[in-house]
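mind reviewing these tokens:
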Amino acid sequence: MKMYGSLLAVCLAFAFSARAQEVIKVETPVASAVEQQTPSDAMRDFVRSEEARTCAGLKRFARENIFADPAFMTAAQDRNTRAVAAAASKYATALAKDYDTDFVFYHPNTRFFVRVNDKNYRGRMRLDGDAADSPSACFWERLPSQDVVYSVLMKIDGEKTGYLKMSKKLPRMVKNVPDALSQFGKVRVYTALDKTGLKKMAWFKMRRREPEKTKFSGWCTAEDLAFLTSIGSSRPLAKKQQKKLLKISDGSETFSLPELNLTGGAMALNGLDGERLGAIVYTLGTAPAAVDKDDPVEQEETENVLYRYFE
């Protein structure tokens, strides 16, 4: 009987041991490969981070400097447009130097504006209702000069003191996109405008007065888009090739140009009303683009062909 009990104890111990081994035996899951980021994703992430950085940086500068200036706030409370512009003048210079900000505007109300440091650039421009009702807003818009810009609008403290708006041009917003895409190959980034409602001659008139003319920029149109500037390590495409690039990129997030050994993508820029204002288009390739010797953009090395035609 004692032997039977010992045998039973050994069997139970063996069964428990086997059961325990069965319970703790867990199959190690196979680690799934992390999906690599695409060039379009990289460009979209970079542009969004640039928007967030610009929005936060300009808001902070305005609060810590412009809104903390008694001369500016007194002029705004008195609704003295000329005094506001004079008080904000030095800050507009600092913003241009340290933040690449192209425009600083004062809106005494939601319908009228003046540009700080430019007496000739003022007039009527209605602010979006949602943006005007909020303490601050950051958004893409098209200015009366026809520039597509990323704007930071801030309501000045106090009753009916107006708004301060700081705007950065599209080419400045994307100037570091080529570096963000350099890991994928030789890149060229184009900025484009949507031609819907665009006043082309007004755009040309404003560009003629610019002291710094952008190299390798021009006017090439196809369908609903018009190319303006391009930057990057690869050569700019010839005009005929640019037109084809515009056509296939219009409304397409990714595309390819097999005959030029190029791939690319586009990102639309929409205003507060949801309408497209412009686009950022990039091309990637290992070989330099073919050169059209008859293309004035290819011939131009130091001067923007656009100004040569309209000066």
